[in-house]
Amino acid sequence: MQIEPILRALNGLQFVPPRRKPGATTGERRSPRRGRSVEFADYRDYTPGDDPRRVDWNIYARLERPYIKLYEDEEDLTVHVLLDASPSMQWREENQPLSPKWERASQLAVAMSYIALTSGDRLIVETSTRSRIGPKRGAAATSAVMEFIERETLPPEMADGRVPANRPGASASLNNWLKRYALDARPGLCIVISDFLDADGYAEGLNALGSSRLDVNVLHTLSPAELDPEFAGDLRLRDIETAATQDISLDDAALSQYRQRLNQWTGAIAEFCRRRGGKYHLTDTSELVEKVVLRDLRREGWIV
Amino acid sequence: MDRLVSVINPLALFFAALAIPIILLYLLRLQRREQTVSSTLLWRQVVLDREANTLWQRLRRNLLLLLQLLTLAFLVFALVRPYLNLPSTLSGRLIVLLDGSASMQATDVAPTRFEAAKAEIRKLIDELGPSSDMTIILVDGSPHALASATSSKSELTAALDTAHPSLESANWSAGVALATAAGGGGGSDNSATTVILSDGINADDLQLLTGNVRYIPIGVSGDNVAISTLSLRKTPRGLAAFVRVTNTGSTDDRVLVSLRSDSVLLDARTLSIPAGQSVSWIINGIDPQVSSVRASIDQAAHNDLPIDDVAYVVNEKNTQRRVLLLTRGNRFLEQALAVLPNLQVTRAITAPEPADAKPYDLYVLDGISATLPSHASVLFIGAQSVFTASGVFSSTTFMRSEQHPVLASVDWRSVNALDIARVNTPEWLRPIAQSSSGPMLFAGEMRSQGDPFWRVVLIPFELRESDLPLQVAFPVLIANSVAWLAPPQGLNIPSSVKPGDVVPIPADAIVLLPDGNRVAVGQRGFAQTNQLGVYSAQYGDVAGAFAVNFSIPAESKIAPNLDLKIGGATPSSEVKPQYSQREIWSWLAVAALILLVIEWWVYQRGVPMLRRK
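^ Those are the sequences you sent over. The predicted structure of the assembly is below.
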């Protein structure tokens, strides 16, 4: 994985959580909870049951009304990197030794993990095969994460669509994986790296993540062959995951219809994320990782 | 024949069964190439989109199959060879006889009958079907084919443009022979149609033509006035011209006739000529020194043929040779001399007095002795007192003959005679034909002055006692002898000939044509007599002149013969509703080819497989 030279450029970057999520322990992040930190945030009326130690007695002496002094609460951020490792993510064309799509997706996962680790966040990486690493903290964990993702790469002989049915997660749908992950996920920032090519869709899974107070961000990875297919003629298309076949006679009209459908579909995912306050970025897997991270994601406000 | 479209080869419809393998192959071709994709999610939606489309789009998916089946259909239709029954006068072999006679120059049909006939032929050429061919024969004095059995319209049109009317009568029997040779006129395989474009004048020989004949009569009117005769006669008061004008039409007419000599107007007169009648007019007192006289019809109300409105006559100088024949009666000799041109033969029994002023050019002494003027040319026949004889012989076995102008083309080998005089001749009179017993013919030229003779031919036996007059050689011998003994003065040419005639002018003579051009005469005489007018010839220091006149009275009667009988029947000039079978398989084949190209284009465009890297 040719990612190490790029990682250095990612030093000093950190994620921007759009909403404050209460963390587990005190960390460097400002918590949305008004807490016990030294940084003043606001006043509010005292209500019975409030800790009387937090009443600002100076104000009370001046106004004769009890006010509670609120402080910024600093806490850590949990970053969840959810990497779809389904066979469709590892799909490659016949003449390609490696799946470019998986290559880029795993590089993006490493880059996201590195940003999280170097900015002191708590990192959990899970793939759709239900393997998980983390929580990790600190830049030293980077190599462990990289090894973990490397292990998730399908061996080349399996990456041509002949996915053994007994492989864990091979038949699990995106929704099921995300829903199951949402059950015990700590609130925080969630980055889903997937092609979303799942017959069951994506809505339930993403909704479940959002319900678990996760800030859902989507890195949608599609290969050029999916964005702009070039095969044509009378074909029998075989799904690499479900082995389902679809007969189609491809001509220019069919290809333009495909592109139209693709645009509708990606637009729907983007709209879905936007409505839930999440971010969406569609990346062509032929693009360079550093361009995606340092330019596109920064411009779109993922990281600062 | 009632249906517009029929087929020749309906069995070829079985080729339509080829559609079955095409459809089968199409279905087999749909064994699809397998392509693994990351997901069929989106593709399924595309297929759903497309299946929800209209019938037209479903058809478009099968556009290639449709195009292939359509191509096959066109090919099968081409194979069954359909043809259109097009109403047409033209099919198969067409032989066109174009009348090129003088009467076709009549202007009753604008611009002329000949041009109208050519326009009709151009129409026929336009109607000519692709599988038909046409032969155009111009029937004039010597009919010939302008174009032979060609279907090339440009070639036919170009050939037609070269046709010009002649000043002669049409030689219809030769034209019919040409047409028959070209395939018209009967026969078992009679697909040929003979089309005659003529005014039907002097066309009786067309009765020889049989088979499928169509007659397109040209011409509407018979009004014509012609100068039928023009001659000059010497009178004591100079020359007298005799002009006869004939109205060959059916309408009385008044015509203005003028007489000119070398472009000087001599006289003019208006003549009233009843229909079908002739009027004569004699003009006296013409200068005897004029070289030629021209008579022309300058004004006439009903005159459609211009070429017979003018006549020329040459004022003949005295080129006649005078011959004195002294004989007691010899029919063979008289006849042989009478047919020779420019010869004025005077027959007598005794010689004229020497005081007679003018000597004759030639004296023929047939067994009669006479006193002759000096330097006379003489043809002696039989024993003569001029030469002494030393006996007779009768054995005429031929031995040899000299090369001599008198013996040119004369076969002397079988000449037999009784009692041939063994003549003692002077040295200059040499024998030119020898028998085993002695000479049978002498000829010689006197070279010394003072002798009574200039040239002499001696036949030393009586013609009555010989078989010579009965032989072909005799008139030739007499003609040769006369020509050698009394060479003609001037060019010895006829004074008036018809267009197309050959005038016997010696080779290398120069002839001045009426249009001012000069032509050198070839070896076979002067044949370019296709202009009307006066021709003058110059041969060394000898000059001569002759006139070419259109003098064919039958061609001047230009009333068209609309009911021409051909092969005993009157062919209808109406266009019978005939049908030509025009095959259209070539168009179907072209359509199939176009479809094939379209199919290829659709394949290239709709299946962008070649764009693949």
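Residues 5-86+585-611 of chain B form one domain. Chain B touches chain A through 29 residues (CB under 8 Å).

Shout if you want it in another format.
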